[in-house]
Amino acid sequence: MTPMRAVVVAVALFVMAVSGNSVYAQNRPDFVDAAEASVNAVVHIKTTMIQKTAVYDNFFGFFDPFFSYPGQTQTSKVEAYGSGVVISPDGYIVTNNHVVDGASNVEVTFNNKMVRKATIVGTDPTSDLALIKVDASGLDYLVFGDSDKVKVGEWVLAVGNPFNLTSTVTAGIVSAKARNIGILGEGSNVESFIQTDAAVNRGNSGGALVNTRGELIGINAAIASHTGSYEGYSFAIPSNIVRKVVDDLLMYGQTQRAYIGIYPQEMDASLAEKARMKDIKGVYVKNVTNEGAAQKAGIKAGDVLTSINGNEVNTITQLLEAVNQYRPGDKVNVDVVRSGKKLSFTLSLLNESGSTDVVKKGESFFNSSMGLVLQPISKSEMNNLHIKSGLKIIEIRQGPFQGSGVEGYIISAINGKSVSSKSELESALANNKTRRVYIEGVYPNGMKMNFEYYN
Questions:
Q1: Which of 147, 188, 205, 380 is catalytic?
Q2: Where are the alpha helices (DSSP H) in 19-112?
Q3: Residuewise pLDDT in 10s, the chain (455 residues)
Q4: What is the distance of C-alpha 10 from the center of its chain?
Q5: How far apart are CA 419 and CA 370, in angstroms?
Q6: Active site includes 268?
Q7: How many angstroms from the chain centroid is the CA of residue 373?
Q8: Is 386 a catalytic residue?
Q9: Residue ranges of the domains in the chain?
Q10: Which one from 101, 124, 128, 303 is the annotated catalytic residue?
Q11: Is it true that 262-348 and 365-454 share their CATH fold?
């Protein structure tokens, strides 16, 4: 090609790029409609928390000190900020659990600057989700999309309030799905994030991840960062998990966890060869739990689980995401490969107790001698806090705790006896032969603290 010919071609390409009729101009993504549908349904959340120092000298003025460190007890109000997504016109808002965890006051500001107090309907630490409610009607809200259908490379928008900058919209693509980044800890916690490169920063937590149709496909929860600010990747909880957790909190007061009953192992070349599979895919069934859903249906150790209800499962994280969209008693179709042959089974998922029952949140009760309204906590909350029993303080009335500000504190034992119910609490108090009441427990943030008082 002559130099003159090269110049002509370059000019022609430049004209095509800037032309309103070019292929690029016609196919570039348009985020305007999705942004307009989202900004009014994403809110700013301000929470107030009572922060207590780790040094409890003469704690609250009436407890004998368990720590004899010098200095005075300090209690201060701390404000934190995040985002939330309106999911109904009558004021239900979903956000991250870590946005409202331990909050004594929750205030919501809408895009039109309307401010409302919010109450916490329910929380699920295992998925880092919470549901709050404001007294309002006719609100703009987002509808749930199907996160199972989200594709890597698909354009998405992150909508939230980073650095207290309200109604901020950033764009990116889905970089990966079913990411486990280890931020929720071990045990029964559920991590299967949608990874994007849409810019997310402090304050975006609890905000919306939407597709180009303006459907909610995730709740932004975390970033991968060495500095605390955005460095290229952000992570959102898939909308199918969000929708199921919200429904559980509304219907039962706590999340209903279903279990498939297998000990899974990531596939590799040797396991694929052992299972007579040409491709390395699926999740290897290392073992099955006795009388679990999988064993009852006929699945055996050595099988390779490849799909649940038609959705491919190639990692343990994908398996967790798939199962956690269902409740105990739900039936799912599972495909496995056994000795090179494809088999299909129908499973009835079970709860952690091995039944198909759903469990409603324990009803609160009042104990007059302590002046407290208490409520049993769920198994998932116990697992998250690494305790085996617990009663949460949800209201303080007249009595030894008045003015202490210990709402949310979880009592795990009284005078050495575990308490998880009204009867256990009353028994522990009644069998006390002295006036001294020794309390063991933990705060929702995981900080353990013991108290005593005299009745």
A1: 205
A2: 23-27, 32-39, 97-100
A3: 444 444 444 433 333 344 444 444 456 678 999 999 899 999 999 998 765 444 332 232 233 322 223 334 455 678 889 999 999 999 999 999 989 987 889 999 999 999 999 999 988 888 899 999 999 999 999 999 999 999 999 999 999 988 777 789 999 999 999 887 665 554 445 678 999 999 888 888 899 999 999 999 999 987 766 666 666 788 999 999 999 999 999 988 888 889 999 999 999 999 999 999 999 999 999 999 999 999 999 999 999 999 999 999 999 999 989 999 999 999 999 999 999 999 999 999 998 778 888 766 667 788 888 888 888 887 777 877 889 889 988 888 878 887 777 888 999 999 999 998 888 888 888 877 788 889 999 988 788 888 888 87
A4: 52
A5: 14
A6: no
A7: 26
A8: no
A9: 3-29, 31-256, 262-348, 365-454
A10: 128
A11: yes
CB 351 within 8 A of CB 359: yes
Rounded CA-CA distance 415/420 in Å is: 14
The single-letter code of the amino acid at 190 is: V
Per-residue CA distances from 59 to 74, 118, 335, 396, 409 (Å):
9, 30, 57, 17, 14
Identify the three-state secondary structure at position 114: coil
128 is catalytic: yes
What fold characterizes domain 365-454?
Pdz3 Domain (2.30.42)
Domain 262-348 has what CATH class?
Answer: mainly beta
H helix or E strand, kind and range, residue 382? helix 379-385
Q: CA-based angle 41:91:84, to the nearest 5?
A: 45
CATH architecture entry for 31-256:
Beta Barrel (2.40)
pTM here is 0.72
